[in-house]
Design a protein that fits this description.
By secondary structure, the protein is an alpha+beta fold. Among the domains are: 41-184, no CATH class; 242-334, Chitinase A, domain 3 (Roll); 520-616, Chitinase A, domain 3 (Roll), CATH 3.10.50. The protein contains 22 helices and 22 strands. Strands 9, 10, 11, 12 and 13 form a 5-stranded antiparallel sheet that branches.
């Protein structure tokens, strides 16, 4: 088999690959750290004591062995007296525990043995315990929403939230999730009854998802037992986690900096060159510091430092107040957990890609037998040499009629791929048509990608089915959930949204009720004085606050940056909105009034004294200006309301039972 394309390897591994054998640290969350859902997270269910749907509910465990509700039923007699029923239940449970007295280990009770009214049993269900995965938390038209499905969705929702939301909204999150799951199940039931699951659009997407999920499972299965290459991790870790000592020198003139750097490049002694520049006051030596971590330096300086040998001199770096040269005096490795995580992730990703290439190539080679002549006739490079002006459509035309077998896959039921089959797939990959000049290199690459992808999908699916991966609970849950969400989307598009109607008056009413959300930002007209040092800026600001004239302060302040400096921020040219200011300045400027002054410290640069000549408060944006945004919001609210109406109707058509009653974190 020829080289298997990296595109498919990336496709298979980058989307939903689970390492299985190595757990990497979580990537930083964009909103801050998210508290992990603990293994002790539990929900409470109120269930009918004699309901067959809960026959496999663990009511207790002894030494890790569960006792199921069905085991107690023979000892229970139905009675309206809840006290009597509670006594029977306790006696039956004690008897089962006594029967297993030979088992060692802790006893755990998962239910309240006091049976409630209407023969209701209160159970505390750990969401991530293997014992409870098939227990229903709700039934929709007798179809269960299991603990496994509920906990999987809860984890997904939790991971999408910010740390604050996830930490403070557990009860609300669980209730909203339960409502959402029921909504999706109700819509699924109705969609299947309508027949949306029989449409070609549904079946095509569902089959593609099943195939992809199976191939992911196969690659994960084959990866089991593979371990992270610790030596490669250590080598990369020592390359990326470095710190160094530097001697740095700042020049006010680029010409002087260039002269020193060129002299060094010609082989002259840098220390002598820089000593001369210091003596002539062409350069200033930076303050000597200890070791600095490369990751804490500016990216361009860190990259330069990583390339230097000890004793080497950098290129010239332009800065706000001059030109920088530095010499690397020492370099050493430093322990850094984040750098170690990076090294582990990087090495593991490379290992996965290498493994995938090898496994996919070997698997296809084991089954594929090529017609070499037919394969040669699909060489678009040679075709281009023969006919330089040929268009892609003309090149494909004879191939689309060629019924020769290109490759035979030696499976229990052999599968063949013809030249015409591959040519058709190539043509279909050009969404904008084939009436363009033949780009032989591009088409040959695409041809190989399509061929390899097609062959592995066939033999990979066979291998996965042979291993029984299509019969696992994980595969069943993933494909069932995809079908539900797909049917939900179809139902929304074909049933719910066509019913949505609203009038212009409703949009205007929304605008009137939410006008505070559609205000222009505050606007400012100000003058600025840029300084090199914070102390000088603070002195100037104090004078302005004391009533001094801006022009006088400007003329009598020390340490001002020359106005010709191209690195200066331009504050004086126009009226600026609050949102147009640097983010770090916006909070400072939010409450200012006319005549106020403040000092803004630009990160790693100058200090600006800002004098506010005029402040223009926020105003309501005109309706016509925000109408487009309002239309979208009102439409979405109408969609939500229409969906809610449908859900209420469907609850009457499909019996819905919810057993989830108490949410808590143990």
């Amino acid at each position: 088999m020829t080289y298997f394309p990296r595109i498919f390897i990336a496709f298979c591994f980058c989307l939903v690959f689970s390492t299985g054998v190595f757990a990497f640290a979580d990537a930083p969350h964009k909103h801050g750290p998210v508290p992990v859902l603990g293994e002790d997270l539990a929900v409470q269910l109120s269930i009918p004591l004699f309901d067959q749907d809960f026959a496999e509910l663990p009511v207790a465990s002894l030494g890790g062995t569960p006792i199921f509700l069905r085991e107690l039923w023979p000892a229970l007699e139905k009675t309206q007296d809840s006290s009597e029923l509670s006594a029977q239940f306790k006696q039956a449970l004690d008897a089962r525990l006594a029967d297993r007295a030979a088992l060692t280990g802790p006893v755990k009770i998962f239910v309240d043995t006091n049976i409630g009214e209407d023969e209701l049993l209160l159970a505390e269900v750990p969401l991530f315990s293997d014992f409870f995965q098939e227990v229903p938390v709700a039934l929709v038209n007798e179809e269960p929403i299991t603990v496994a499905e509920f906990s999987a969705d809860l984890t997904s929702v939790h991971n999408e939230m910010s740390g604050t939301e996830a930490a403070t909204g557990s009860k609300e999150n669980i209730q909203r999730l339960m409502d959402r799951l029921i909504t999706v199940r109700l819509i699924e039931q109705e969609a299947r009854n309508i027949g949306f699951d029989q449409t070609s659009a549904f079946t095509k997407q569902a089959e593609e998802f099943k195939e992809n999920t199976l191939l992911y499972a196969l690659l994960n299965k084959q990866l089991e037992g593979h371990r992270l290459d610790d030596e490669a991790v250590d080598a990369l870790y020592h390359q990326v986690s470095l710190q160094g000592k530097f001697a740095n020198y700042k020049f006010t003139s680029e010409k002087d900096a260039v002269a020193v750097r060129e002299g060094y490049a010609e082989g002259k002694d840098f220390d002598a060159l820089i000593a001369e520049a210091l003596a002539k006051k062409q350069a200033i030596a930076g303050e000597q510091q200890g070791f600095l971590r490369f990751k804490d330096l500016l990216p361009n300086i860190a990259s330069e430092a990583a390339e230097l040998e000890v004793g080497g001199v950098s290129q010239i770096f332009r800065q706000a107040d001059g030109f920088l040269l530095f010499k690397l005096l020492e370099r050493q490795f430093v322990e850094d957990p984040q750098a170690l995580d990076y090294a582990k992730t990087n090495v593991w990703e490379r290992q996965k890609a290498d493994f995938a290439h090898k496994y996919i190539t070997e698997t296809v080679d084991r089954y594929a037998v090529f017609n070499e002549q037919a394969k040669e006739d699909l060489n678009f490079h040679k075709l281009k040499e023969t006919n330089p002006d040929i268009k892609l459509g003309a090149a494909l035309e004879p191939l689309l009629k060629d019924q020769r077998v290109l490759v035979t896959l030696s499976l229990p039921t052999p599968v063949v791929l013809t030249v015409a089959d591959l040519a058709e797939k190539i043509r279909d990959s050009y969404f904008h048509g084939v009436d363009a000049a033949l780009d032989a290199k591009e088409v040959d690459t695409k041809k190989q990608q399509i061929l390899d992808d097609t062959l592995f999908r066939i033999v990979g699916t066979y291998e996965a089915q042979k291993l029984g991966l299509d019969r696992t609970e994980k595969y069943r849950m993933e494909t069932a959930e995809f079908e539900r969400r797909l049917l939900f989307d179809i139902f929304m598009a074909k049933v719910v949204t066509p019913d949505v109607r609203y009038e212009e008056e409703e949009v205007q009413q929304y605008y009137a009720q939410h006008q505070a959300e559609y205000m222009t930002p505050a606007m400012f007209k100000f003058q600025s004085l840029p300084f090199y040092r914070k102390a000088d800026a603070d002195k100037a600001a104090a004078k302005l606050r004391g009533g001094s004239d801006f022009k006088w302060v400007s003329a009598n302040s020390e340490g001002l940056v020359e106005v010709q400096n191209t690195d200066l921020l331009q504050f004086d040219r126009n009226i600026l909105s609050l949102s147009a200011l640097p983010k770090s300045l916006q909070s400072q400027a939010a409450g200012v009034q006319r005549g106020d002054s403040l000092v803004y410290a630009q990160p790693d640069n100058f200090y600006y004294v800002l004098y506010f000549e005029d402040v223009y408060p926020p105003e309501a944006r005109p309706y016509a200006q925000v109408r487009k945004d309002l239309l979208g919001i009102v439409y979405q609210e109408k969609v939500a309301a229409t969906l809610e109406d449908w859900v209420e109707k469907l609850k009457e058509a499909y019996a819905t039972k919810v057993f989830l009653v108490v949410k808590k974190q143990a």
